[in-house]
């Protein structure tokens, strides 16, 4: 229970169904460096909101200290990604290592048989393969399956998402009003939970100041085009903060945080025929089902995009190439590539991994 409307309604729905529900909120903030009185999901205000909801629906509520594993598994990789010039997605690591790993173990210790969250996605069991699967939500606009691709079979077996079939956020808020929950109109949190004021650069100024050291803009031919304020200010596809004279709009093509070089170019140069992906996790597919023969799928290379047709080709034990049927724009290392089924398995999460680079045009 993060203190937001989604997890609050999920708890209330299960309680109404007669389920024995225990509310758990994670304490993951660092008090010495974070505003604990705010409204974000890491704040004391959020804990109090969760506690009030638990009291309202009549369930026990516990706050569990996960500061150390969160710092090790979420914050540290976040910082390391920026040191590499990558664009991280800390929510995926939080789901992977904290919510659906460490917390799952604690839930079992409390005697729970399921771990419920307020995510918009659906869990099912495939009777043909006996594997647990992850489906997109009933609402395409609200679907959060992209951020859950790293869930393992043992975790999926004990996961439930009561909001998976909800069509709109308004519907969720109406349910919150039905249950008389004080968080019914609470705004969604849009910020990185451990970053004050929503500005990750302030966080990096302390955690990795070298990522904010002045550097150089170069074009795709390696020609120097100007200076910038620090590599961490830029991500692939970005147009803002490129103070370089040009007759055509310029965008970030790549970031080399080690050298401080940010490569810029035209919109056309942003398109790539595919990407390299490592650190794989398989959901609906068993790993051996992907071989050297291109495997058809649909892929998302960022959270807010529609799945695009592609083919998977294995290149190593824990690596593959995603070959897009049509070039895609702004492939950003550090982001997740999530693979979805097509045809009869449309909407099934096949698996995913971390983008480590883009394929070059032939």
How is this structure best described in words?
By secondary structure, this protein is α+β, with helices and mostly antiparallel strands. It folds into three domains: 194 residues, 3-Layer(aba) Sandwich (Rossmann fold), CATH 3.40.50.620; 54 residues, SH3 type barrels (Roll), CATH 2.30.30; 88 residues, Translation factors (Elongation Factor Tu (Ef-tu), domain 3), CATH 2.40.30.10. The protein is built from seven helices and 16 strands. Strands 11-14-13-12-15-16 form a six-stranded antiparallel barrel. Strands 8-7-10-9 form a four-stranded mixed beta sheet, with no helix packed on it. The relative contact order is 0.13.
Question: Which key phrases capture this entry?
Answer:
362 residues, alpha+beta, Rossmann fold, SH3 type barrels, Elongation Factor Tu (Ef-tu), domain 3, 16 strands, 23% helix, globular
CATH superfamily of the largest domain: HUPs
Name the overall outline: globular
Order of helices and strands: HEHEHHEEEHEHHEEEEEEEEEE
Average predicted local confidence, pLDDT: 92
Number of helices: 7
What is the CATH domain class of the largest domain? Answer: Alpha Beta
Rg, alpha carbons: 21 Å
Number of domains: 3
**Subunit organisation of the chains:** single chain
């Amino acid at each position: 229970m993060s203190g937001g409307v989604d997890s609050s309604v999920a708890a209330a729905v299960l309680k109404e169904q007669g389920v024995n529900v225990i509310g758990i909120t994670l304490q993951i903030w660092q008090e010495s460096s974070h505003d604990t009185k705010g409204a974000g999901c890491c704040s004391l205000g959020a804990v109090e909101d969760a506690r009030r909801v638990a009291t309202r629906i009549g369930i026990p509520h516990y706050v569990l200290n996960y500061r150390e594993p969160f710092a090790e598994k979420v914050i540290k990789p976040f910082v390391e990604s920026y040191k590499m010039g990558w664009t991280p997605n800390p929510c995926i690591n939080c789901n992977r290592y904290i919510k659906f790993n460490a917390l799952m173990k604690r839930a079992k210790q409390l005697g729970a048989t399921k771990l419920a969250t307020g995510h918009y996605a659906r869990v099912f069991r495939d009777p043909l393969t006996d594997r647990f699967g992850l489906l997109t939500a009933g609402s395409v606009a609200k679907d959060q399956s992209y951020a859950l691709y790293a869930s393992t079979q043992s975790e999926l077996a004990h996961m439930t998402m009561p909001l998976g079939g909800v069509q709109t956020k308004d519907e969720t808020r109406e349910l919150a009003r039905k249950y008389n929950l004080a968080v019914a109109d609470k705004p969604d949190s849009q910020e990185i939970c451990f970053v004050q004021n929503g500005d990750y650069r302030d966080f990096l100024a302390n955690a990795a100041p070298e990522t904010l050291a002045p550097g150089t803009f170069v074009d795709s031919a390696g020609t120097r085009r100007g200076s910038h304020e620090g590599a961490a200010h830029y991500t692939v596809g970005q147009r803002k903060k490129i103070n370089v004279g040009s007759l055509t709009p310029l965008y970030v093509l790549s970031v080399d945080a080690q050298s401080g070089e940010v490569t810029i170019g035209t919109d056309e140069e942003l398109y790539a025929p595919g990407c390299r992906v490592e650190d794989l996790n398989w959901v609906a597919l068993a790993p051996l089902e992907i071989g050297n023969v291109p495997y058809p799928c649909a892929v998302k290379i960022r959270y807010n995009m529609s799945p695009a047709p592609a083919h998977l080709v294995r290149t190593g034990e824990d690596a593959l190439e995603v070959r897009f049927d049509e070039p895609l724009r702004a492939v950003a290392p550090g982001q997740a590539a999530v693979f979805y089924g097509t045809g009869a398995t449309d909407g099934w999460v096949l698996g995913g991994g971390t983008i480590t680079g883009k394929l070059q045009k032939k």
